[in-house]
Design brief:
- α6 runs parallel beside α7.
- β8, α7 and β9 form a beta-alpha-beta unit.
- The chain has a single domain, classed as Rossmann fold (3-Layer(aba) Sandwich).
- It has 233 residues and is α/β, with parallel strands linked by helices.
- The chain is globular.
- The relative contact order is 0.21.
- The protein is 33% helix and 19% strand.
- Strands 1, 2, 3, 5 and 6 form a 5-stranded antiparallel sheet that branches.
- It starts with 14 loop residues before the first strand and ends in a 5-residue tail after the last strand.
Amino acid sequence: MSTRTAHNPSAPPAIETRQLRFRWPGQSRTLSFPNIQLQQGEHLFLHGPSGTGKSTLLSMLSGMMVPESGTVDILGQSLGTLKASSRDRFRADHLGVIFQQFNLVPYLSALANVILPCQLSVSRRTKAKPDARAAGVELLGQLAIPEYLWHRNVTDMSIGQQQRVAAARALIGAPEIILADEPTSALDTDNRDRFLDLLLTLADQRHCSVVFVSHDQSLARHFHQQLALENEA
């Protein structure tokens, strides 16, 4: 289980949102979200039934989508003040995202997938010590990916192995924030708990904040904070 990580009280929160609302084009229903304040190095468990906007909220936190109203501040930077290209650059430099379907590049090897963020971000490449390849190899080893698979296409790997490659890709270069969208939904209980412990342990080593989305409330014990999204009446 993760332990609480000390944070610098003078540092801006990792994530701070206020009065977020979002409406999909052509839909009459507007999603409203509770305010969030997550300190750097802390972990948030986000849960709720389908349709409450968990993935939508993660997309707004990453800057992939823009709220109808309200503010999203990441590491003290207001995403609403940035153009789309600047949000993309900010995300590449500061955020690691683990998608529910992993979104690995199928024609690349496991190692090539892991080091991809370092090719897209000078900041991530600089923080990957001693270099991107060595850092990728270390993460694959820590996440128990056998060495014979490092240079095989990810399509040759099991779902659990692909999931750990996706986690390594998110963690490389020590981004300040990890956003994980139900990455354990396809795993059995033992592998789910093992993966979550590994993810949070590695995040703590790198002082990364984590926002983890799941419908499985039994996972909440691993996290510093919980936030429930509910369907509005």
